[in-house]
Inverse folding.
């Protein structure tokens, strides 16, 4: 047997069937594809790439406009109320009392008590709810407001078993509860 025949036989029976042989085959294939691509592509543009970067940083915001960060340092705007209408605190307090209801209150009367203080969307969402499902019995503290804009505030009402979170909107200066959430303590 010649040395060449033994080498070819070793190559096909042992080396190419092992992990090392497969890895070497992949390396040769990748280098072949890269070499062929470079031959077909022709000479590259020396101005392209990192050598063509700008001399100054690219700005997307006018540097004289101030802080554009996520956390604003300005005080939130105070809610605006149309003259003669309830303030957000008063609306949240009255809605919380209506939401708590009283023993023996029918679902119809319960909804009637909340309807003047609720947006149309919330009234629709509460259509199937019943006063027996309310998980609290009494308000235990003052309403706390978190103004988000002049027409949107979040109100937190402390109750005996948790906290009622209300979102109030005032698109035309009249505050209405638009969302109700319950946080149990």
């Amino acid at each position: 047997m010649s040395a060449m025949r033994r080498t070819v036989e070793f190559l096909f029976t042992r080396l190419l069937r092992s992990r090392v042989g497969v890895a070497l085959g992949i390396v040769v294939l990748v280098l072949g594809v890269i070499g062929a691509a470079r031959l077909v592509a022709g000479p590259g543009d020396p101005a392209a790439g990192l050598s063509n970067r700008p001399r100054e940083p690219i700005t997307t915001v006018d540097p004289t406009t101030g802080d554009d960060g996520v956390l604003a340092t300005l005080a939130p705007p105070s809610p605006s109320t149309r003259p003669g209408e309830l303030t957000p605190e008063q609306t949240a307090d009255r809605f919380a009392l209506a939401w708590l209801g009283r023993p023996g209150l029918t679902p119809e009367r319960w909804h009637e008590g909340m309807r003047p203080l609720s947006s149309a969307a919330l009234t629709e969402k509460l259509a199937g709810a019943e006063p027996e499902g309310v998980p609290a019995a009494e308000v235990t503290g003052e309403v706390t407001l978190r103004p988000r804009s002049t027409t949107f505030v979040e109100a937190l009402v402390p109750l005996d078993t948790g906290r009622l979170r209300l979102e109030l909107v005032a698109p035309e200066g009249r505050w209405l509860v638009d969302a109700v959430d319950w946080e149990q303590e």
About this structure: Residues 19-41 form the longest helix (23 residues). The chain has a mean pLDDT of 82. The radius of gyration is 36 Å.
